[in-house]
């Protein structure tokens, strides 16, 4: 069952969410999980992600179900002038508006900060963009894979793996989504400190966020002007940054500090490492990383992962078994406090959801309700902004507003 209704640190904050696909909806999921009232504004066809993954009911794909929990849906045909009036009425009572519509289309719809600030001067207007609009790429379209290529991530993959393979998760969308959620929180905090409670525009571009993200460690010797060496963090790019085979699988074992390496040497009966000039300290092990990994390979191939883990844990050496996703779902640590929740959906039956990973002692987040059907809350939301039943029915009849099944 769903958790009891929680307040969450963003309780009382209303977000009008015009984002779609992954980046924006992930950001608003994070905010909704922590209490924000997120009103998902969808086109008549619905968010594309409604149709990705397994569907027991059309338009309720499995990826959509997780990414849009704790949200309410209103379906608006923004090509109709009357729908823009509805949108402005939603904005008038909101704290935040978010969209990831490319700038030319957004301008045609009147989705710009100046227009919406005229309706509500306190509004925080957030834009998830492919690129910073100040540069020549400003109006280009972008997706996760495109930015993986352009930001240097695929080149790093090629250096490390020998092939420019995409990272097997939506790393750009989710990383930028976290930045978008953080930017919204920061803008709300700034508004609270402003005597006039003025909002502002916040632009979060994918290319620039990922460039900053990747170069945090990989800028390295190119930090200096002129560069002392080409960018790239050698230890991370090394092909010897890998796992170790055990009798029944693989493990990551990382005795990074000298005390950890000393305890490992004692644990496995290889105290000769402590006097070997190749392995006697962290600098030496880094310089002789290939030989060091070969030594560890020979040691860990002698037992099962299950045999090694308690020994390494007792010695305070960071280590983990390489787990499949099925094994993660059954992980005993996560199970011990019910991280994965089973919730009842009114039409889809029992659903599994990852819990909110952040804990607050006074204002916890939580799962309040499951992902909405397209337009499920259209009537409810319009009633909250003051529309009477006759006006709502007229908008539905005109096709300006949609409700489920239409």
Architecture blueprint of SSEs:
Elements lengths: L13 E4 L5 H11 L3 E6 L19 H6 L3 E6 L4 H12 L3 E4 L3 H6 L4 H7 L4 E6 L14 H7 L2 H9 L9 H23 L7 E5 H13 L15 H4 L6 E2 L4 E4 L4 H10 L14 H6 L1 H12 L4 H10 L4 E3 L3 H5 L2 H5 L3 E6 L3 E6 L23 H7 L4 H9 L3 E2 L4
Parallel strand pairs: 1-2, 1-4, 2-3, 4-5, 5-6
Antiparallel strand pairs: 3-12, 7-8, 8-9, 10-11
Helix pairs in contact: 1-8
Please, could you describe this protein's structure?
40% of the residues lie in helices and 13% in strands. By secondary structure, it is α/β, with parallel strands linked by helices. It has two domains: 14-214 and 335-402, 3-Layer(aba) Sandwich (Rossmann fold), CATH 3.40.50; 244-321, 2-Layer Sandwich (formyl-coa transferase, domain 3). Helix 2 (62-67) links the parallel strand 2 and strand 3 (71-76). The longest helix has 23 residues, at 171-193. The protein is elongated. The model has no long low-confidence stretch (mean pLDDT 96).
